[in-house]
Specification:
Blueprint: E1 17-18, E2 21-22, H1 23-35, H2 39-48, H3 56-89, E3 92-101, E4 110-117, E5 122-130, H4 140-154, E6 158-164, H5 168-177, E7 182-185, H6 187-202
Helix pairs in contact: 1-3
Length: 209
């Protein structure tokens, strides 16, 4: 753009820049990642609306170079503040722990194990386990719990009560390695198992519901 009065030349830009990176493009990539949306479908949506947007390679470049690091840094800072608060208050933790895999059955590649501090309702730790780090995918839940407990105790925190599902490997490890910690089962899992037993009995002769 050129001013006819003073000949000042100005280049119009559709969005501000952050160190030569278009801020809108980076914000869009962040929104796609943090919302759990599929980048392919999101980008296709914009194209169908005739809106200029980034391509998939740009999204994955931003994710690799900026977003993953930003998320990790933010999480570590948040986690450190939580741990500092626990230590300041001399809290003995009441933890709920549960694992989740990226797919059901024996073909899962990744498993995460999450600890929730139930008195304060805050996520205390998250561990990610890959199936090739353990004998098979069935061992990922126990491995995630072990890593999480080791991390939490390494910070000088004491676990008073641990609540988990009825995973056999988890129960065995807790019994052998956390003798001073009370271990309880999540009532939801107990009720679910009880329901299955009742339904099985209901199918036997003369016991129909």
């Amino acid at each position: 753009m050129l001013c006819p009065l003073c000949s000042y030349q100005y280049t119009w830009e559709s969005q501000p820049l952050i160190n030569s990176i278009p801020a809108g493009n980076l914000a869009l990539s962040t929104a796609i990642l943090c919302s759990g949306s599929l980048p392919t479908k999101t980008i296709t949506l914009f194209k169908l609306m005739n809106c200029s947007t980034i391509n998939e390679s740009t999204y994955f470049k931003y994710q690799r170079n900026y977003l993953n690091q930003a998320i990790q840094t933010t999480w570590i800072e948040h986690q450190n503040s939580i741990i500092a608060s626990f230590k300041k208050n001399k809290d003995r933790l009441i933890l709920g722990g549960d694992g989740r895999c990226d797919s059901p059955g024996y073909c899962a590649k990744f498993g995460s194990y999450t600890f929730l501090e139930l008195q304060n309702n805050v996520i205390t730790d998250i561990q990610l386990v890959q199936s090739n780090e353990v004998p098979n995918s069935c061992h990922m839940e126990k491995e995630g719990l072990v890593r999480g407990i080791e991390f939490i105790t390494s910070k000088g925190l004491e676990v008073e009560l641990l609540i988990t599902d009825r995973h056999g490997q988890v129960s065995k490890w807790v019994k052998e390695n956390m003798k001073d910690t009370l271990h309880k089962y999540d009532i939801w899992h107990v009720a679910k198992g009880f329901k299955k037993k009742i339904e099985k009995l209901a199918k036997t002769k003369d016991c129909e519901l």
